Amino acid sequence: MIIGIAGGTGSGKTTVVRKIIESLPEGSVAVVSQDSYYKDSSHLPWEQRRAQNFDEPRAFDWELLYKHLALLREGRAIDEPVYDYTTCSRLSKTVRIEPRPVIILEGIMALVDPSIRAILDMKVFVDADSDERLIRVLRRDVVERGRTIEDLINRYQTIIKPMHNLHIEPTKAYADLIVPQGGSNSVAINVLKEFIQHLLIKK
């Protein structure tokens, strides 16, 4: 089964995924990160790469993502791309992902593309307060992606927030389950885990 877990930047998707993995037998889950499928922009000058809008559907290689999900469903391994946020480009190396009983697609726009939605067995939207999301983004991107506070605040106001409202928030309508309060909502996460376990037993 393939589960799509979407939600805004900093909403707690990774925490939800981690708790699902912890609840299932070891080796039964493979995670595909939508972030790995940003289009390669290494051919562009650095300033253009850095200024790109990574929060709109055109930033992703949907064709390759769909192809890889379809291969995993067929029981075939994939070589997932590796995207480097510090250089805003795709690296030459890849990560081998073997098929597992549960495949989780995690990403801000996991529910945006109709072809991707069609291949998902379950669609989840992780919701969180916008202030909480901003704080998490600041903490993550300053440490992991080398951005300044000023740069991030400007990016949040001009790109992240408006793109979230335009492209990500509306995909709640496609979700089978909405997890409010992000990764801290233990009740919703437990319901999700139990449902997945039930489906696995049924299959």
What does this structure look like?
With 203 residues, the protein is an alpha/beta fold. Helix content is 42%, strand content 20%. It contains seven helices and seven strands, in the order βαβααβββαβααβα. The chain has helices spanning 13-23, 46-50, 62-73, 114-119, 130-144, 149-168, 186-202, and strands spanning 2-7, 29-33, 78-84, 89-97, 102-106, 122-126, 177-179. Helix 5 packs across helix 6 (149-168). The radius of gyration is 17 Å and the shape is globular.
Report the order of strands and helices.
EHEHHEEEHEHHEH
Number of strand elements: 7
User: Order of strands across the widest beta sheet?
Assistant: 2-5-1-6-7
Mean pLDDT: 87
Distance between the amino and carboxyl termini: 9 Å
Content of β-strand: 15-25%
Question: How large, in whole angstroms, is the Cα Rg?
Answer: 17 Å
